[in-house]
Amino acid sequence: MTCRRDLRAIDISKWPDWRLWKLAIESIIGFCTTPLKLAFYLTRHGGEM
Description:
Elements: H1 17-31, H2 34-44
């Protein structure tokens, strides 16, 4: 059994840019806790180091 699909145009995504950006951020945060800890530290201390 074969399936035929139409080719997609190059560099055209069905996802809007904001949705891709959100996916990227969630992937980074979901992979490790360091960005989350950094964000917590910066908000807790008001960005002062």
